[in-house]
Each structure stands twice: as structure tokens, then as C-alpha cells.
Amino acid sequence: MKYFIVGFMGCGKTTWSRKLATKLGYEFIDLDQVLEAKAGMSIAEYFSSFGEDAFRKLESQVLKETEYHKNTVVSTGGGLPCFFDHMDWMNANGKTLYIKLSPKTLADRLENSKTIRPVLQGKKGDELVEFITGKLAERESFYLQASNIVEGIDMSVEKLEEALGESI
Asked: Where do the annotations place ATP binding (predicted)?
């Protein structure tokens, strides 16, 4: 089975995808890493060099052209589900799981993150919470198309397995 893990930046997609893959004995793929290898630069560099439209097209190509083994857990980029037909494609090609967190929790995590996230540059505190609230409002209708949804607070591999239920 292929599992595509979706959610807003900072929700723990990569961390929990890797842990779930390890527990199940599945392959783990981080689509952001695949994209960076294909582009030969970081996502932040690609974004600033070529813009969001070019990035989203490359991201779509990476999603649909990556070779997935039968048993794989895939961590996606935070915006990937919200463009083109990506949620439909992922739902047709595996199971999707949305890791849901509140804007405040996401802001707390992102404010202390060491990862460079171009869209968050210079945003802190209330301004960051406000930004995330707006972005999440735009994106959540896509995330909610996931076949499984799990609250990201007090996350555990067991909680992920339970959310995926009958599929494991």
C-alpha cells in the first residue's frame, strides 16, 4: 500500500512519515528531497530563482513521475495537495492521511524551526498565527479530501496506524 501524508508546513509530515515507514517496514520517500535532487538546489533557492508557478509544475511532475514501490510512505510538501489534481491523484494511487493542527500550534512549531521557509520570512508571533490562519483557510478544503484525518497533537506511530485503520 502507498500512503501519502499531507498537511500544513510544520505539522510533522516528514518526521511521522519516516517513523511510520520504519514501523511498517515500508520504503520512505520525502517528495521535497526528491524535488531538490531533481532541481539541483533547495526549494527556497528554486522558489526565488523561478517563482511559484515553475515550482508547482516541477512539484507536480515529481509527484506523478516518482517510482513508488508497492509499500511506501510518502511525505508531501505542504502546498502540494492544493494544486492541479494532486489530491485526486494521490487518493487514486494510495491512501492519504491529513495531519491536522491548529494555526497556533503550527506557528509555535514554525517559529522555532531551523528549516528555511521563504513564505514565512520575517513573520513572528501574532503575525505568523494570522498568516497561517489565512493560508490554512485556503488549503484545508484540499487537505480534508484525504481518506484519513488525524489530530496532530500527541502524535504517535500507533495513532497514525489507528487513523489508517483497515488499510494497514
From this structure: 10-15, 117
